[in-house]
């Protein structure tokens, strides 16, 4: 079977959307954590020189950035091993990079802005 005739495994297709699934999870958890934290006054609790809410949001953000970093390394390893068609794995790697940039951009406001108004 030639390279062009090879069937793309479903696992490779999942790599195409995995980065933005992690990004959307980060967005939902950050938005939900901010809403709950403001409602319960976690912004007024001080831990390590900053609010407990800010620390919690930073933790959520960093976990998602780390997950995207791992996903990027995994998609590059799949591409280099040649286990899937080159176009799919190259596109998956590029989409994961874009999702990582979007997640970093989303979280940059955490340390810079007022959390609860």
TrEMBL record:
The keyword Membrane applies. The keyword Transmembrane helix applies. The chain crosses the membrane at residues 12-32, 52-74, 86-110. It comes from the Bacteria. Keywords: Membrane, Transmembrane, Transmembrane helix. This is Uncharacterized protein. It comes from Rhodoplanes roseus. The lineage of its organism: Bacteria, Pseudomonadati, Pseudomonadota, Alphaproteobacteria, Hyphomicrobiales.
């Amino acid at each position: 079977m030639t390279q062009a005739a090879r069937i793309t495994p479903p696992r490779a297709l999942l790599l195409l959307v995995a980065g933005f699934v992690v990004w959307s999870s980060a967005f939902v958890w950050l938005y939900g954590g901010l809403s709950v934290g403001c409602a319960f006054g976690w912004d007024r609790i001080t831990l390590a020189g900053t609010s407990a809410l800010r620390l919690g949001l930073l933790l959520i953000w960093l976990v998602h950035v780390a997950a995207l970093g791992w996903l990027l390394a995994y998609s590059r390893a799949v591409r280099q091993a040649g286990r899937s068609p080159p176009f799919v794995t190259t596109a998956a790697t590029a989409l994961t990079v874009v999702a990582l940039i979007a997640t970093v951009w989303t979280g940059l406001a955490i340390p810079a802005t007022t959390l609860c108004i």
